[in-house]
Amino acid sequence: MSNVKVGMIGYKFMGKAHSNAYRALPMFLPDAPRPEMKVICGRDAAGVEQARAQFGWDEAETDWRKLIARDDIDLVDINTPSDAHKEIAIAAAEAGKHVFCEKPLALSLEDSRAMLAAAEKAGVKHMVGFNYRFTPAVLLARKLIEEGRIGEIHHFRAWFLQDWIMDPDFPLVWRLQKEIAGSGSHGDLGAHLIDLARYLVGEFSEVIGMSETFIKERPLPETMTGLSAKGSKDAPRGQVTVDDATLFMTRFENGALGSFEATRFAAGHRSTNAFEINGSKGSIKFDFERLNELEVYFASDDADVQGFRRVLATDPVHAYMDAWWPPGHTIGYEHTFTHEVHELMTAIREDRQPVPNFVDGVKCQEVLEAVDLSIEERRWVKLSELQA
Prior knowledge:
nine-stranded mixed β-sheet; 10 helices; 26% strand
């Protein structure tokens, strides 16, 4: 397959990120099949038409069922709110389309398993949108771990901190409603941390957690786009039905210990997505606000020069970097999506499942729900309790 014809459902924050990736791919990573941006879909006709013209899609559509039914679509890209993922993904798979779905995969573990089952039954390719895996510095961290250069992993600690809803008069956007989003900071931010932990350290064995919703009610929004919204503090209020912050601890199957913090109430943190890994021979530190850098410590260094070193992961020796700019020239958030789409398009051509895929989405959902169960029952929960 030389080209992959794409139909995308959703056109706001993630829709723009995915569209940019499709456009950039043939310019910077031309070894992958070329995505043809055939149809973009959304419920608001005027809004989706504006997005079509701005993002560079051929056509606009307001009915996702019509998009899926088209013979000229190979891949369905789903970046709608989470409550729509299951129905669209299953319909797309049953129609023989490959599926690319943003995280979290679904509202529940049961729904995510149904999506995986449908994709496997149909024999289509399926991918879940954990774009942070495709940061060159994160890929370097994985390489150092796989090569044993920091030894046996003892600790993984991670935190994803934001502050965009600290104002109690910030409107009740869909991300704060459980029936649409599934969960709050836990499923939105914590899901990324969970996936990075599985990618770098391994599978979870057991978890224990706690959460809090600091602002119980918020004014109903007049308009909302992506992570922004407008409304009046005097507007009628609705109930916040998701967590504002969730913290949990884990023991991994390999014996390593882990701690996780996801919150939207960390003043001064616009989007701090970071982790530290401690091994028997050294440590690794990463912060997405400095995404081109990885801090590395090797215990074998001579005593007079021991300390964390800053590695700028922009040279061609690092994953994907030979596609971009000369050494020392940095890349940004949007590039992770281009790398992600490269993996998807290459997997379609090579007739293999891309990574991460719906299996990873289900594994992540297992951890999310194990933490929820732990919070509800105030106890340690083994992942085996949720596994089929």
